[in-house]
Amino acid sequence: MAINWDDSLLTGVDDIDDQHRELFRRFNNLLAACNQGQGREEVLRTLTFLDDYIRSHFHEEELMQQRSNFPDYPAHRAQHDNFIATTEALADQFRSEGASLGLLVKTNTTLMEWLVGHIRKMDRAFARHLNAGRTAG
User: Fold this and answer.
1) Exposed end of the chain (fewer CB within 10 Å): N or C?
2) CA 115, 121, 131, 8 torsion-angle sign
3) 35 assigned to some structural domain
4) Are 3 and 112 a contacting pair, CB within 8 Å?
5) Residue 19: which of 47, 75, 49, 57 has the closest Cα?
6) Which domain holds residue 43?
7) How many distinct structural domains can be found in the chain?
8) Element (H, E) at 5
9) Using H for helix, E for strand and C for coil, what is the string for 68-134?
10) 2 or 117: whose pLDDT is higher?
11) H/E element holding 11?
């Protein structure tokens, strides 16, 4: 049930690509912890770290967008805000229900679809904007 990284997810912006790889690694650690029946505390610790990392990554990405006058910044930020709300809801569900098979499938599907889709569409569009500005300047 792992979320696999491949080169179709590269944006061409090293800092962003490195952070995306780390997000994939952390999501997979979370899924593995749930799958292996690791203790509730370990899963909660991973969820907390993941939430912090997502917020930090989104903040850095949004600062880059603002500095480069990215025209789609408001829509991009709205997607980030929606994803944070989604991950918070999944974490709340885990806290109340535990790591059920249904929750694992829902988490994997949600994270994979959103993250892969967001990177391929929104983040790559931002990278094109950023790289165009670098070559024009």
Assistant:
1) C
2) positive
3) yes
4) yes
5) 57
6) 10-136
7) 1
8) none
9) CCCCCHHHHHHHHHHHHHHHHHHHHHHHHHCCCHHHHHHHHHHHHHHHHHHHHHHHHHHHHHHHHHH
10) 117
11) none
Count of CB atoms situated within 10 Å of the CB of 16? 21
Question: Rounded to an integer, what distance in angstroms lies between the CA atom of residue 51 and that of residue 49?
Answer: 5
102 in a structural domain? yes
**How far is Cα 85 from Cα 90, in angstroms, rounded to an integer?**
9
pLDDT of 134 strictly over 80: no
Q: Can you tell me the distance from the alpha carbon of 94 to that of 136, in angstroms, rounded to the nearest whole number?
A: 48
pTM above 0.90, yes or no: no
Tokens 């997000």 locate to: 23
Residue 57's Cβ-side half-sphere holds a number of Cα atoms within 13 Å equal to 23
